[in-house]
Structure prediction request, 812 residues.
Amino acid sequence: MKYQPSKVENKWQKYWHEKRIFATNPKPKKKFYNLVMFAYPSGDIHLGHCKNYVIGDVYARFKMRCGYDVLHPFGWDAFGLPAENRAIQLGVHPEKSTMENIRTSDESLKLLGISYDWDREVISCLPDYYKWTQWMFLLLYKRGLAYKKQAHVNWCPGCQTVLANEQVTEEKCYRCNTPVEKRKLDQWFFKITEYAERLLDGLDQLDGWQENMKIIQRNWIGRSEGCDIVFKIAEKDIEFKVFTTRPDTIFGVTFMSIAPEHPMLENIIKGSPYETAVHQYASEATKKTEIERMEKEKDGVFTGCHVVNPINNEKIPLFVADYVLSEYGSGVVMGVPAHDERDFQFARKYDLPIKVVIEPPDSKIDVTSMTSAYEEPGTMVNSGKFTGMKSESGIKAVTTFVAEQGWGGPRINYRLKDWLISRQRYWGAPIPIVYCEKCGTVPVSDDNLPVLLPKDITDFIPRGTSPLGGVASFINTTCPKCGGKARRDPDTMDTFVCSSWYFLRYLDPKNGREFCSKKNADMWLPIDQYTGGTSEHATGHLIYFRFFTKVLYDAGYIPVDEPVINLFNLGMLMKNGEKMSSSRGNLVAARQFIEKHGADVARLTILFAAPPERESEWTNEGVVGSERFLNRAYHLVVDNKTSVSKNKPTKIPPDEERLFIKINQIIAKVTDDLETFKFNTAIAALWELQNELYACNNKSAVYGYGIYAFIHLLSPFAPHLADELWSLIDEKGSLSKQKWIEYDKAYLKDRTTTIVLQINGRVRSHLEIEGEINEKKVKDLALQDARIQHHIKNKEIKKIIYVPNKILNIVV
RNA sequence: GCGAGGAUGGCGGAAUUGGCAGACGCGCUGGAUUUAGGAUCCAGUUCCAUCACGGAAUGGGGGUUCAAGUCCCCCUCCUCGCACCA
Prediction:
């Protein structure tokens, strides 16, 4: 008879729930915070989602079995574009669809048999939760880390909202792929740049993070060392700073370029005959997308003004040019055509002088014939008193000189931008700010939180300004300071704000007075293991929540300034070569699959397909194998129940030593693989044990112990069947509460060793050795070997290399 | 353009410090069982080779070494991240 999972799985899920097997110990002796990334509720869950949950679950269950008090919670990232777009698509209120989706998904997740402590479930769109999201906003505001400014920001015409820099990939919206535009808007920002250096330095301590992840974050933060230099406009009383990483090229500056969006541009061109031309150029540039600006030829327009280079008092023309980014450095660049490719192209186009001031080590640059800029370091020439210095020391010398003269000085610049958190959308946590005619911008006081998101709204379709702006009962309020008439901020917060602190709410999910008590934070932090997807989070969530952690640490609320010790990055689950997703129509619904094949089959198939960090393909062939494995596992136990021995055999007969060693090796292998997330090879080892036991004719105590060990080892991967088998051998309760099985160190090494006999590095024969043996004896035995003799016949032995207990290589 | 990762049988994938390449699974072949199909069990399965002796093989080319999937140099292709960053 074939194993029927549905009844068994049902039974055990009910048992786990009733006996509260996965309830968190509120007073952990040996805590382990095992976290998987919480999820967007978008319809029911599919197997792609399950990969995260299953992998997190295997690890949680293993840690439980190793004697840890594991905190393994789950929740929903329920606000934001994914949930709202879904609701709009279905034509229902976001709250309705979101809560329904959560209910459905929770049920499906429970069918998967994940060891979550459901009592701690967190849903970010509920007032109990977003009250604290708003509190976080106010904390940042009080600490000077939240501010409003007018800026050119990313605007998604599809989602009808602004987006953070982190939510734009290749100039497209991360949710709907629409090309983003730039708009000048008044928006709230979090000053993450103030933490740029600490976010960067902190990475060095994160030994439990993959190097690749740290590199991505380092690049994103984009630290560069350079020098600020102040330049004056010759015709007007205006000066501005320019950031450069190459102060050694300062004598080669032949023009200057300012970004079309630069706030000072207006003053510079006012009254100049070039005003109209500059205006026209600037407005055209602003209309272009960044891609268009990047791909077109470098061009610009003369502003009519000149700039004085302080180093040599040369007057050089100032252009407006759209290859200059207003958001980076100071929005103005010095044009050094000989040593910067963009400046070179620009200078050639407008016939501007090209001055060589850096010479390559062993050649000379000829200005008239050069076809591209020389950007490498070299030796400074035509550079006044700096002539002859190498670039590296020249950079330092010029910087020092500039500082001494009071023209500027060293400066570290970051590519990271402040985090734009306003969203012109309905489905989010309202920004707890009030605008009063008299008092200006006033924060809502902590005890007036939450600022509730109005529910009785029918028109939540995004139209470019927040739908909340039209809800009179929400928008009109009184000033917390003077009591006069005031208006609320109509925008809601980016959903990444909600997800920047959710891991703290799990620690104390029902606390009405604090987001989390200090006691619980001290007890559980940091997260010991964090598991989730990589690509979409490396430069988003995983930087944001490090930022929040540092802010909360500085404010004294939590004991750590890095949230996560070990980060595990999963590869995506694919189907037919594509990411499993509803938009691609290639998803396998978790519920349907489990109802047909069982949760353990789903779990095993996901785990065995590939190493967890690698992208893996969901295939029917994989399902077949898992089903076969579980069925064989079931029969192995059921058919041999009476042979099972629950204690480690004390006396191992010589002819069973090999099997006993194999059992111990496999326990060691599975234990090791579990610790290092090599779940695919752990399952391979289980197959091996199963095959070994099937091949066994003598149903001895060693054999019986092998079955007992097999049940133990199976439990993190296929917990339902494992618990069933556990009860079938007359054990009580769930295996989850049992201590992990240990191996016998005295039985890890094979009693016989195989020594490979090679001639010129090619395998020719083998030598089976029992016990210790010395080199001479191996050589003697090898030379007696018939096959070896055949190969060395008529040949001269030049050398014999012996690697103890491994290999003997004869060179002829 | 810059940065990171990858390429191993028909397929998914294994291979501490360089030390028997292909664990485990799928598929396939043969056998047993079965009314048949399916399921199950047993055996075989990198390729070439008169299935003997043997030879070739880890994207391609070179190198180091007694010995290279693993180390070094060059090249090709794929995936991902960043991308006018001054």
In short: The CA atoms of residues 91 and 376 of chain A lie 58 Å apart.
